[in-house]
Design goal:
Distance between the termini of chain A: 19 Å
Order of helices and strands of chain A: HHHHHHHHHHH
Largest sheet of chain A: none
CATH architecture of one domain in chain B: Orthogonal Bundle
Chains: A mainly alpha (301), B mainly alpha (350), C alpha/beta (297)
Structural class of chain B: mainly alpha
CATH superfamily of one domain in chain B: MetI-like
Structural class of chain A: mainly alpha
Number of strands of chain B: 0
Largest interface: A-B, 71 and 70 residues
Oligomer: heterotrimer
Chain lengths: 301, 350, 297
């Protein structure tokens, strides 16, 4: 049937997709755990300064060394995890809600609304992402919420396009006309098919978007926007490591690896999800044909 | 970045690449024919509409910020009278739409207002920072074309050999490395291990061309890695596809040497999607330059935007954003024009 | 035998190039050296599956050889081996590919480049896909003339015009300026034939060259091929599943099946008195649905 079925089914299918995906899932699971329990796992207070032991390399006491004011890097990394991860997740959700819902609805909207929304999306996509995120977050108060809202708003057009394309493939004109002519029950079937067809595409897009959002969050915090020091963020740690590169050349490795591994795992997962859920142009079209036949059956019976 | 604007893009302004609405609904062939039929006029007209909307959004953003000239210039010592006085001086007590039209009109004549912080005309600050960003963007594009182009073509010609596998593996890795990580890695390499290139700062070509080129090398490479790996991958795929076409067999059978067949027949037909991919990366080169400029300490548009955003200097932010949008859209228009010429010859043959 | 063959080979009227002999089957041509041949050819995939099992094929100057068989019977692979363009994943594992006596089975690209276009040419089914869609056909024809035939740059335009004219195309200048998508199948096939014959090869391999064309266009092209044979002494290897076409054009025919030749010989003999059961099957199938049956009934 069309649609991926229950949630558990999806995870099982992903798990069976291959070794690389399993590594990604496990890795991601670990990162999520760190995200939830990180601050509790930190051996030291991430904000505790001790300039006497500043800029040390890895030692037995401090596994990843200390930063320029003597704070334990490992603790900061663990404490910074939830901030960065949560910010990325929330930004993606904002983008999803702001983009996917209008995207699907735009297919049913009157022509003028559709045209306007498409032009708006084009304009948003023309804006250079990070530049605009900086301007947005910076001008509207330099806080985490502003940063997340900015990223979410800039991710929305992407979701809009993807969900609109998926919805369009299901509702070709004749099909919708026929369904609406035949009454409400058919129209309800159409809506159901649309959501079921659109859901896998959006899921794949969402997973990939978290990765992208995480990169942007890291970039923003790297530039000093979104979270104020001394609160630990992965991007912020990279920035201070850059300043003291000559004293501690291997400093950037830890936060960089954290970012790269998380984003890499998310990308791998997104690719696997795309394969497992069978989301690509050809399949979307096949689903559309199948959905059309099913509704034809239902309405003729 | 997997899903971002880039992946979902495919509409009128950004270069056509991944699946678009039309593709899904009507099938690829018809959509491509429509795309090819779009005239230069349509492309430019749509670009202008986008610029207008984007300018409106930019101006609205500035207006929505709680910042005002007094807070920026005087900081905590600003009294309410100061606020009112400076607001009047900068024309902020006028209605929003009036200010927008005035600002846009001024922009067309080259006047983007004055900085609330320093009073320096915005155009002047932008003009000072523009060459830096332009050098960086051009440098990154050049490196992307050279690196991405050569590796992509090599991998495409020698499909299945170790060269191909090596290139594909490197591309996969590079796709996950964010720009600032690459930049820092390069700094580490070239500052401590092989100190050849300067790891920061900017020297204008008017002072010394050699110094200018040298200081551009590392930032350009760092900024280009994302685009280079995408371009390489795309070029390889299209070249492999083109080489499997029948006309390659035809040309070979008629006695043309392999080199001529690859470079004169297969490659030109493979360039279309590659140009589209490069076009998709142009916005990133303009926007992503902020990170690279910060890492390498270059006083470009990105730095300007960042500093003025943090200090709440609205006119400068608006000016920089507008200039960036125009640059991005102009590049997209160029790419679309080139693409529509390339694809029109292909489509009429199909 | 060898001595007789050498003497005949030395005789100018029966050498490979410029043999302006009679187009119909000629006993003497039996002893002329084959201009293109495979001997005991074996082609296998890289993992060892043999696809062509020891095929012998030869075509002599001015002769028309028909090759019939179903898809997958090995006839296309044999032709590709003759041209040195076996698909990736296959290779020659036995036998010889003799172009004017020289074995090129394991030769490198440079050796093949001297042969392709100059000693043998080829045209295929679906001419549109065998010409570069992005370049004008005139430019491509001129390129082949310049590079393969060695025509000086200044004269390529004129020679291209002459060539297309001699192939029966009207409005030659118009055609030269067009691209693939703007020309009909028949025109494109003539352009392809022009490119194949630009350097005046001795053999033309036509692999299902008329299959995709309208019957009337097919008839025109077959007439054209006949005239070419007469004017240039061109040898022809005509690969087709259409027995009717083969019977009208070719003096000898080879029947392929499952990677081997099951029957071969003079067309008259093979088609009137087939020896192998498979040939009989083919003929019966043709008769069952042939036009003659309808016309007779």
């Amino acid at each position: 049937m069309s649609g991926p079925g229950s949630r558990a089914n999806v995870v099982v299918r992903l798990w069976n997709a291959g070794a690389a995906v399993r590594v990604a899932l496990v890795g991601l699971g670990l990162i999520v755990l760190v995200g939830i329990f990180g601050p509790a796992l930190a051996p030291y207070d991430p904000l505790a300064q001790d300039t006497a032991i500043a800029l040390q390399g890895p030692t037995l006491a401090h596994w990843l060394g200390t930063d320029y004011v003597g704070r334990d890097v490992l603790s900061r990394l663990l404490a910074g995890a939830p901030v960065s991860l949560l910010a990325a997740l929330l930004a993606m959700t904002i983008g999803l809600v702001l983009g996917a819902i209008p995207g699907v609805l735009s297919v049913f909207a009157p022509r003028i609304v559709e045209w306007t929304s498409l032009r708006l999306v084009d304009a948003l996509l023309a804006l250079p992402f990070i530049l605009f995120a900086i301007a947005f977050a910076g001008l509207l108060g330099n806080g985490l919420w502003q940063a997340m809202a900015a990223i979410g708003i800039l991710l929305a057009p992407g979701f809009f396009r993807v969900s609109r394309a998926a919805a369009l493939s299901v509702t070709s004109a004749q099909y919708v006309e026929a369904a609406t002519l035949l009454g409400a029950s058919a129209a309800w079937q159409v809506r159901r098919h649309v959501w079921r067809s659109v859901a896998p595409t959006i899921t794949v897009a969402a997973i990939g978007a978290i990765g992208g959002a995480l990169l942007v969050v890291s970039s923003l915090t790297f530039l000093g926007i979104g979270v104020q020091p001394p609160a630990p963020t992965w991007g912020g740690m990279l920035a201070s490591d850059l300043e003291f590169l000559s004293q501690r050349p291997l400093g950037p490795v830890a936060p960089a690896l954290a970012i790269i591994l998380t984003v890499g795992a998310l990308n791998l997962l997104a690719d696997a999800a795309r394969d497992a859920l069978g989301v690509d142009a050809a399949t979307v079209r096949t689903r559309a044909v199948r959905a059309r036949k099913e509704t034809a059956h239902a309405t003729s019976a | 970045m997997t899903l971002t604007q880039a992946e979902a893009a495919g509409g009128p302004i950004t270069a056509g690449g991944p699946v678009t609405d039309a593709d899904l609904v009507r099938g690829r062939g018809a959509a491509a024919a429509r795309r090819a039929g779009r005239s230069a006029v349509t492309i430019v007209a749509q670009a202008l509409v986008v610029i207008v909307i984007a300018s409106f959004l930019t101006f609205a953003l500035g207006a929505a910020s709680g910042s005002n000239p007094a807070a920026v210039a005087l900081g905590d010592q600003a009294t309410p009278e100061d606020v009112a006085r400076l607001n009047h001086e900068f024309g902020l007590d006028q209605p929003f739409l009036v200010r927008y039209v005035e600002w846009l009109g001024g922009a067309l004549t080259g006047d983007l207002g004055r900085s609330w912080f320093s009073g320096i005309p915005v155009t002047q600050s932008i003009a000072a920072a523009f060459p830096v960003s332009l050098s960086l963007a051009l440098g990154a594009t050049l490196v992307a074309i050279l690196l991405g182009g050569s590796t992509g073509i090599l991998a495409g010609i020698r499909r299945g050999t170790w060269i191909d596998r090596a290139v594909t593996a490197v591309n996969a890795v590079l796709a996950t490395i964010p720009a600032f990580v690459a930049g820092i890695a390069l700094i580490l390499l070239f500052a401590f291990v092989i100190p050849i290139f300067p790891v920061g700062g900017y020297v204008p070509p008017t002072v010394s061309v050699t110094a200018w080129l040298l200081c551009l090398v590392l930032p350009s490479v760092s900024l280009s890695l994302d685009a280079a790996s995408d371009l390489s991958r795309q070029l390889r795929t299209s070249l492999v596809g083109a080489l499997s076409q029948n006309y390659v067999v035809g040309a070979t059978v008629h006695g043309l040497p392999r080199g001529r067949v690859v470079w004169g027949h297969a490659l030109p037909n493979a360039l279309g999607p590659a140009v589209a991919t490069l076009g998709l990366h142009v916005p990133r080169l303009v926007g992503g330059a902020v990170i690279t400029e910060t890492v390498f300490g270059m006083p470009g548009l990105g730095q300007l935007a960042r500093q003025s955003a943090i200090s709440g200097d609205v006119p400068v932010v608006q000016g920089v954003l507008l200039v960036s949008v125009v640059m991005v859209v102009a590049c997209a228009v160029l790419v679309n024009l080139v693409l529509s010429r390339v694809s029109s010859t292909e489509r009429s043959a199909a | 035998m060898p001595r007789l063959r050498d003497r005949v080979a030395a005789s100018p009227s029966l050498t490979t190039s410029g043999a302006k002999g009679v187009p119909s089957f000629d006993e003497a041509s039996l002893v002329a050296p084959a201009v293109a041949a495979v001997r005991g050819l074996r082609v296998s995939t890289l993992d060892g599956t043999e696809l062509v099992h020891g095929v012998d094929l030869a075509v002599r100057p001015g002769e028309a050889l028909g090759v019939v068989g179903e898809s997958g019977s090995g006839k296309t692979l044999t032709c590709r081996a003759l041209l040195g363009i076996l698909p990736a994943g296959t290779r020659i594992t036995g036998g010889a590919v003799l172009i004017e006596g020289q074995d090129l089975a394991h030769a490198d690209e440079r050796a093949w480049r001297d042969v392709r276009g100059r000693r043998l040419g080829a045209v295929f089914q679906d001419p549109a896909s065998y010409i570069n869609p992005a370049v004008r056909v005139g430019a491509q024809l001129e390129e082949v003339l310049r590079v393969t035939a060695g025509v000086p740059r200044r004269q390529t335009r004129e020679r291209a015009r002459e060539l297309l004219d001699s192939l029966g195309l009207r409005d030659v200048d118009l055609v030269l300026r067009r691209r693939v998508g703007e020309l009909s199948g028949g025109m494109l096939q003539r352009v392809l034939i022009a490119m194949a014959l630009a350097a005046d090869p001795a053999v033309l391999i036509a692999d299902e060259a008329t299959t995709a064309l309208d019957v009337t266009v097919q008839a025109e092209l077959l007439d054209l091929l006949r005239d070419l044979r007469r004017e240039r002494g061109l040898a022809l290897i005509l690969v087709s599943h259409d027995l009717a076409v083969v019977s009208q054009v070719c003096e000898r025919v080879l029947v392929f099946r499952d990677g081997a030749i099951v029957e071969g010989g003079a067309t008259a003999r093979v088609l009137r008195a087939p020896g192998h059961p498979y040939t009989r099957e083919l003929l019966a199938a043709h008769a069952e649905y042939g036009l003659e049956r309808y016309l007779r009934s």
